[in-house]
Write a structure and sequence with these properties.
- Two copies of one chain form a homodimer.
- Chain A has 19 helices and twelve strands.
- By secondary structure, the first copy, chain A, is an alpha/beta fold.
- Chain A has three domains: about 120 residues, no CATH class; about 140 residues, Aspartate Aminotransferase, domain 1 (Alpha-Beta Complex), CATH 3.90.1150; about 240 residues, Type I PLP-dependent aspartate aminotransferase-like (Major domain) (Aspartate Aminotransferase, domain 2).
- In chain A, the strands form three sheets. In chain A, strands 2-8-7-6-5-3-4 form a seven-stranded mixed sheet, with helices on both faces. In chain A, strands 9-12-11 form a three-stranded antiparallel sheet, covered by helices on one side.
- In chain A, strand 3, helix 11 and strand 4 form a beta-alpha-beta unit.
- In chain A, about 55% of the residues are buried.
- At the A-B interface, helix 1, helix 5, helix 7, helix 8 and helix 10 of A face helix 1, helix 5, helix 7, helix 8 and helix 10 of B.
- Chains A, B: It comes from Erinaceus europaeus (Western European hedgehog).
Chain lengths: ~550, ~550
């Protein structure tokens, strides 16, 4: 951590407006939520078995009824507390990577998501999960900031988008070579991705990953985003109910990606912020931690099939050293685990002193047949709207099996064409795009970290990614996930969206992720709003001190 | 049927080269296949229940082993019969809508699809299903016909693509208004689809479906294809193991769409070609048949949640009358079934005397909350490469639940922009595109049906769709699915791909679907190859007659 790690957490202040009452109700909520969760858990486990025997009004209906009844109790409680409380299914979100935003209309939300008799129980569950997980994202889309048209709209520092080079990419995408319409682009494609794009991806990754030998286009599968690739890998590598290990904090939507279709659990390898003997830097991933979590999971009867890593890490910004990477890969080999490395932030290493090592650059991979890379252009090229993700694997059977999902997760031919042209233009990428992109990332990173230093907010100083992982514990009293949620609510009230640690499955409350790859005027406005919220929060915590000043 | 319904099936001819031996081996294959299928069926049923109890080496492993062993026996048999026989998992394809093409390398195919220890059992199953179902499609992509570069490549009359107006659509897509790159197109979208596109889809469908009132953009969800929409509907309307009814023959890939993720079964309402008292025209869909199949399924303990219709029908080309449509909807209402109507061929009604009635045009829908429409531009605009499908439902809860799938099935922003511009340009659609498209469809339909008449091949004369449903029974001896497959093999040997009745889950062997929306030179060449195959087939059946001529 670059900055003082004083978290400045202060003990509870009795003058804090009704926070004590909130906490009490939050606790009651917690018990209820847990109770619902347990019931649903039990029923879900028994669900498919029971459904197979009695397709009639089975436990599914009971589940809906129970959820509804509990939901009503919770709604009552919620209405008493001015809609400040989490969703009744937020406990699921603890497991399920929620960004539990506040309720605009808590009661009706409950009703729409829990009580539709036109939907199956599965349909209700998915809809509830989705709308809880993406609540703030949906809010943002309903009320986006616009300089002229909607200056009081939301600015989103939670969703990881790179808006710093939209000018460059727009210019490149507008050139003539982009707008060629060939017949094949209009027809059904090879479901693995058009050959021209797979060839270009193989060439591109060979170069930028520093692969020791030319990568094979036959080992590339192109789908409409990296999460569909992760979902497809979970489908083909695991049976339902099996698991992957992944270090936490991690990108919360991975949970949605592995659970929605594949029913694969992500077992969290919890990382600590505190520096100890086994933890030479905050949130360090060690083989000990991996091994400990794996053995613990196995003792509980879990069947762990793989390890999911993100490098550069999201939300930490850590870039794994070559040695660390090999250690993780060797650990996985010892336990016959697949390793899936998401390298989507590969070209977002903006600090020149930081060296990124792609897993594809390692000459003698410990277990090449079980090492799979996910990559896409969303982050580094700032074009997440293209919906492009690629798998590279040395295992032809895995590539072949993942290609089965192309029919459901394919990208428009015209988008494939543009992507190919973009990746082909190495001169522009190397001479224009990457230097400017990295320099703008540096400037934005400096701006935001200077602000954080001013506010004496600890953060992880890293040279990669589009975000910074910060510690707001000193603003939480007590330092709990409930208070983290209440602080988020304050940010939302001021129309700035930030990512909570809870969304990233962080074990410790008080951490947040700020995306800084936002154009300056918006980033400045967002940070003004952010600082204002923290000032008010501080004011409420220490009103007497402030009044004395 | 417009043409003589003499199917001209002739009894077995002893001179037919080794067909008797083939038939015997095919029968043995059939028993083996059935045996594998039963084992797999039993294991699959018990699978999830057992896996939950013993996550170790369970029935899944046994299943793989069994499949492998049986596969080897089958491979041996296959090698004896020159690779002419179906895949060991083709019996699954009977249920699962296979286009069981021939084996180029049957043994190695078996091995790659069945014995990967790096994949889960589920992964192996999906990969096998996909590669079996899409085998001819994959073959086609490996060896596509090209006038200059590959004149002996495959011409594909099996995959339903509209290539007749590529010139028009390419010209329209190349105009300047198409190539605008706005920031929002590059960023993460509203996962329901960009608002501008949903608004345009609502306006478009209001107009072309003749809706009695303006349709609501909030009821539109845009995903990357119509099959993802069907899959998402199956996910949210059904529990795993539940079912939809659908009249057969139908588009075989629906089985993949409802089973891959949703595990929803399609129960076939079998239609007959023969004209009887209850069947005033070939393959007529009646409420009696729907009701009979539903009650029979319910007796077997199936939980049927809905009815899936395609209008205009694929592969029959039938366009439902308004009265028929209302009868089906009322039947569904009586039994609390959802109705999903796939209207993707809506604007492909090329015969002026045929009137299409969208379900959205019906003023008093029997059960509007359970009536859902799927629509896309792939067929009528010949742009299946765009990967665009839309749901329209009056049920906001269903729309909301289906939007949960947008994250995994979204389309590129730039493609959404182009689609919106295309749908907006009503003048071009009404004055240029549709008149020319319909006229070219008429010409191609006339060309192909004239050929069929010459050959005295019975077919369904319909004025909608891009295909014609033909009866080749007279070329099969005996008239079995095995012989249907052997005939397909002959077509493939001559590098023309056609759709077998089996792919469309037709109950009667001998039917095929020919797509005629192919540009003239290719269509002519394809039909030349087609005629040559039939001539040879005829020759082998009646060598003495021919020699006497």
């Amino acid at each position: 951590m670059s900055y003082s790690s004083d978290t400045l957490c202060t003990p509870g202040d009795p003058s804090l407006k009704s926070q004590g009452a909130h906490t009490e109700v939050l606790e009651r909520m917690g018990h209820l939520t847990q109770s619902i969760e347990e019931h649903i858990g039990q029923l879900s486990t028994g669900h498919q078995q029971l459904e197979a025997h009695s397709p009639g009004q089975g436990p599914g209906e009971q589940e809906a009824l129970l959820s509804h009844q509990m939901g009503q109790v919770v709604s009552l409680l919620q209405s008493e507390t001015n809609g400040l409380l989490p969703h009744p299914l937020d406990s699921r979100v603890d497991i399920g990577a929620g960004q539990p935003g506040p309720f605009t209309k808590p009661t009706s939300d409950c009703e729409t998501t829990l009580v539709s008799h036109d939907l199956s129980n599965r349909g209700n569950d998915i809809s509830t999960f989705y709308h809880t997980h993406f609540r703030n994202y949906i809010l943002y889309h309903e009320d986006k900031y616009h300089e002229d048209k909607n200056p009081s709209g939301f600015i989103n520092l939670a969703t990881c988008q790179n808006k710093l080079c939209t000018d460059l990419i727009t210019e490149r995408l507008s050139r003539e070579d982009m707008n060629i319409i060939e017949d094949t682009l209009l027809q059904y494609p090879d479901w693995r991705g058009h050959p021209f794009l797979r060839e270009e991806v193989a060439r591109f990754l060979t170069h930028y990953s520093k692969a020791p030998a030319q990568l094979d286009p036959e080992n590339v599968v192109v789908l409409n985003g990296c999460c569909p690739v992760l979902s497809a890998l979970a489908m083909v590598l695991c049976e339902p109910g099996e698991a992957f290990l992944t270090p936490a904090p991690f990108y919360g939507t991975f949970v949605f990606s592995t659970s929605l279709y594949a029913k694969v659990e992500l077992i969290h390898v919890y990382l600590d912020s505190e520096i100890t003997e086994g933890n030479t830097r905050p949130f360090q991933l060690t083989v000990d931690k991996l091994e400990h979590t794996l053995l613990e999971a196995q003792l509980k009867g879990k069947k762990v099939r793989g390890l999911v890593l993100t490098n550069p890490q999201n939300p930490l910004g850590d870039v794994y050293s070559r040695d660390s990477l090999i250690e993780y890969l060797e650990f996985a080999k010892r336990y016959n685990l697949h390793v899936i490395v998401d390298e989507i932030y590969m070209l977002s290493v903006f600090d020149e002193s930081t060296t990124f090592h792609s897993v594809l650059s390692i000459k003698s991979l410990p277990d090449p047949k079980r090492t799979h890379v996910i990559w896409g252009t969303s982050k580094c090229f700032g074009i997440c709207g293209f919906r492009f993700g690629a798998l590279y694997t040395h295992n032809k059977e895995v590539a072949s099996a993942v290609s089965s999902f192309g029919y459901f997760h394919s990208i428009s031919g015209i988008a494939q064409h543009k992507l190919c042209r973009l990746l082909q233009d190495r001169e522009w990428i190397d001479q224009v795009y990457l230097p400017i992109s990295h320099s703008r990332l540096q400037v934005a990173h400096r701006y935001i970290t200077d602000k954080l230093k001013e506010l004496q907010i600890p953060y992880l100083h890293r040279g990669a990614g589009l975000y910074v992982w910060i510690n707001l514990k000193k603003y939480l009293d007590p330092c709990t996930f409930e208070q983290e949620l209440l602080l988020l609510r304050r940010f939302l009230d001021k129309k700035v969206i930030v990512g909570t640690g809870k969304f990233f499955l962080c074990k410790e409350p008080g951490w947040f992720r700020l995306v800084f790859a936002e154009r300056y005027p918006q980033l400045k406005l967002a940070m003004d709003r952010f600082c204002q919220v923290l000032a008010e929060q501080q004011l409420e915590k220490q009103p007497e001190d402030t009044m004395r000043m």
